[in-house]
Here is the input.
Amino acid sequence: MHIIVCVKQTPAGENVSVDQNTGCIIRSGESALNPFDEFAIEEAVRVKEKTPGSKVTAVTMGPPQAEAVLREAVARGCDGGVHVCGREFAGSDTWATSYALSQAVKKLSENDPSVLVFCGKQTNDSDTGHIGPQMAQWLGWPGAAFVRKLEAVDGKSVRVQRLMEDGYDVVEMPLPAVLSVIKEINTPRIASLKGRLASKKAQFPKWSAAELGCDPAKLGLDGSPTSVVRCFTPPQRASNTVKIQGETAADKARNLSAALKEAKIL
Ligand SMILES: Cc1cc2nc3c(=O)[nH]c(=O)nc-3n(C[C@H](O)[C@H](O)[C@H](O)COP(=O)(O)OP(=O)(O)OC[C@H]3O[C@@H](n4cnc5c(N)ncnc54)[C@H](O)[C@@H]3O)c2cc1C
Here is the structure.
């Protein structure tokens, strides 16, 4: 089985800043592997370990420095990686990004039906959660988002638990398929020394839009149907906290009800 895991380089830490003039994310600070992708890598490597003869390839789309996340993926147990890289991809929205990534997955699969693609649930910068489901759509493959457990997988099909608001669904689908996983799925391992050494030596092919056979009209800022009109931090709402007093729980409930009626909420 060929297991493919999509990984993105994002700003390290939780405070992602946006340039107020251009509306673009400021990427000049320290970068790291998107935290949610640690879980996708771990699950991909676990499937490989349980499935003799399989391999894991990490894929990233990003500027030259994004190669660092492919090294991290190899350190954590992936066998190799490919880097979708080129000016033609700059400014892509999720539609264009998922298109380019799906072209890379197609090239990696080359008509092999025994392919399972893993994505993280979302990123910590753009944070949309679009990429996994959109890739499934571009590829015409079945997919599941918010996967919390892989119940069974072999070279032909996969059965997963997909988290829903009121519980979970059990979904079985034939391969090839695309899954987006949530952090409850596993506890990612720490990279081994052997993995770190392998990652230092690893070479990652760089694939351009032309090599992927991409339609240029579907790439970059011009090929993106979304346009960022304005980016802003919403003003903080003034909080008007009222502490409801009362001797007993029943008193407090009565006073709360009276206060809500007075405020015309009830
Ligand atoms: C109009 C518009 C313009 C934009 N312009 C720019 C810009 O100029 N520069 C810029 O840097 N960003 C830009 N973005 C953001 C960029 O489109 C998104 O970062 C990208 O599409 C991925 O979306 P996401 O981060 O929300 O991923 P999500 O859908 O939240 O990610 C889910 C999972 O998909 C996978 N994944 C996501 N992105 C990648 C990737 N690149 N490579 C491999 N796997 C991935 C990971 O497994 C991840 O966990 C723009 C967005 C819009 C809407």
